Structures are given as structure tokens and as C-alpha cells.
Amino acid sequence: MKALEQILHPAVLDEVESQYKQVANKNFPLFVAEIPLLYEIESQHLFDTVVVVTADTSLCKKRFLEKTNHSTQEFEARMTHQLPLSEKHANADYTIVNNGTWKDLKTQTQTLFQQLTK
After folding, report:
1. How many domains does the chain have?
2. pLDDT per residue over 86-97, tens digit each?
3. What residues make up the domain containing 76?
């Protein structure tokens, strides 16, 4: 796993940088990069603002099981490779809590977009 991550994580960051360079001279209000393991790879310093999207662990597990058809053990194994959500939340500039519906998530996202683009 470690060897794979040493290849994958730099490649992801290189791709984010490449995508950013493609749009840097355009008139977009934000550039957003979704990097689930940003804190784990200690790359948060590369970004102006970090937004963490979180949900209750039980809800995360339920969504994982429904989407992937993997086992509870697989969910728990994956979680051991991630920082606790409380730690991510404490270090983030903003947090979106995704415990509700898509409409709730969209509303929170739109509100944050307005704050960030003022």
C-alpha cells in the first residue's frame, strides 16, 4: 500500500497543478480540487483554503456499504488509514456537514461558495 501511495499521491498533486495551470488565466471565481487524503499526505499547505466535508461515522459506513457492496471490515480497514474526522475538521478552514439530503448539501455548498467569492 505504501509503495502504491508513493506513486499515486504525487501523481494526483501533479494532475491538480496541471489542471490549475490550464485555467489560471481564465476568469473563474474558484479552483476546487477534491483530495480525500489531503491531510494524510500532508499537502494542505499547497492550497489557499481547505474545506472538509464530513458526516457521522455511522452514516459514512452506511453510504459506503450501499455504494460499494464491500464489508464492514473493509470500511473499518480503510478508516484506519485516515485521520479522524475531528482532526480534519479542527484543521480545516471550513467544514460542510453532510448528514442530510442532497438538497441540504447543495444549500451548504452554495452558502460557502458565496462566502468564498465575496
Report:
1. 1
2. 899 999 999 999
3. 54-118
